[in-house]
Hints:
The protein is an alpha+beta fold. It has a single domain (16-174), classed as Adenine-n6-DNA-methyltransferase TaqI, Chain A, domain 2 (Alpha-Beta Complex), CATH 3.90.220.20. It contains 4 helices and 9 strands, in the order E-H-E-E-E-E-E-E-E-H-H-E-H. It has helices at residues 21-24, 105-116, 130-135, 150-174; strands at 16-20, 25-29, 40-46, 55-59, 70-74, 82-85, 90-91, 95-100, 137-141. The strands form 3 sheets. Strands 2-8-5-6 form a 4-stranded antiparallel beta sheet. Strand 3 and strand 4 form a beta hairpin. Helix 2 packs across helix 4. The longest helix has 25 residues, at 150-174. Mean pLDDT is 90; it is low at 1-6.
Amino acid sequence: MNQKTGNDLSFMGIKWDSFMITDIAEIISGRIIPEDERIAGNIPYVTSSAMNNGVTHFIGNVNDTLESECISVNSNGSVGYAFYHPYEALYSSDCRKLRLKYKNKYASIFIAVSITSQHEKYNYGYKLGTARLMRQKIMLPVNQNGEPDYAFMERFMKCTEQKLIHEYISVKHATGGG
């Protein structure tokens, strides 16, 4: 255990297995809202950027893609990048929305990172549409029953978060930041 933060979790001794995205989530296509039809507002509009969690605009439009606690996966542009959205957002047709069967902030972030780790195999000419995403496999830790170990994913990401917060506070303190 890390004495500074009281938290430490490693992958040592963890069993892993591959899972198709469809084993853990429902895949839903986004819907484009053309730029000339967008209304200024406060709702994040997720498109295909690798920046800002894929959010490129804030709009006032609403459609059937409005949802929270989802993962977006870029199918165009910055192909293969995945982001967790705990807040309500709208999703463009340049990304796919994953509605996870197991909803948990930390496990969702873990899964998004697992998906993003494979982004380099995709590009503008080799997009990640729904059919390809349905066949996409990711490696996840498994429990004794061979099922995704969501409890481990949650613990691991919480520990990672605490470690990063501790490092941030240490740097701020060391540099005299407030």
